[in-house]
Amino acid sequence: MSVSAWNPNRQRRRSEFKTPPLRLPGQSMEKRISERQDTFMQDSLITVILIVIAGFEWLHWLMLIPPNPLPSTTLAVVAILYTWREKVPFVTRIKKLRFGQDGERVVGELLEPLREKGYRVFHDIPGPAFNIDHVIVGPAGIFAIETKAKTKPMSGSSKMFYDGHTIRLEDGRLLQKPLRQARGQAQWLANLLNDGRKATVTVRPVVVFPEWYVERTGPRSMQDVWVLNPKALGKFLDHEPQALSADAIDAVSHALTQHCRWPVIDGTEE
Length: 270
Known about the structure:
Helices cover 44% and strands 16% of the residues. By secondary structure, the protein is of the alpha/beta class. The chain is elongated.
């Protein structure tokens, strides 16, 4: 059995979310494929290194060159320093990506009950250099949802304030990028859906922060972007007037489905 095989005594990674996401179809198979690919690449790299070492040894023997460990030692030290310098940001980046992935899955599961209210739910809508985490289409309209999984503070409450222009944390930090990102993605989606169509549709940008409490300090009518905990999205939608007919919902959903079936070059951002 390989060292990567499951060990019932090992400590499992604790999720940052109170309700961790459910497993996806084929997730175990995806993990096995990834592990086997990594193992193959590692074994291949070791084989190449051993061939190179053997080649140098044969070269020394054939040419009667005395051993000189200084060049190889220098290269080894440089390689160790380079690898160590790259390892820390690499590990940090992977942890951040996994945290964001868990956040998107948690939000995706919270959106599923909206189907019972007549909404169509789409995930990971590809754009030219980004992706929209979730899109819902239903009676209240079209909503482009950007998930922001943010680590909670070590002390104090996980609370933020939104006045329609700025997201502010309790420690005074301001978050502007999520609003710009959500607006840009919603506008792009509206342009995509309106391309070649007589009837124009609008898309509401939404930013959700799982596990965070969002306090609105300004009038809701002045907030072009919804910023909220994803669990509150259903209540927000219930208070919205009907914007799309059943035929319009079908048409928009068909357009989104067709778009998602087209292969795109991966250039997504966080």
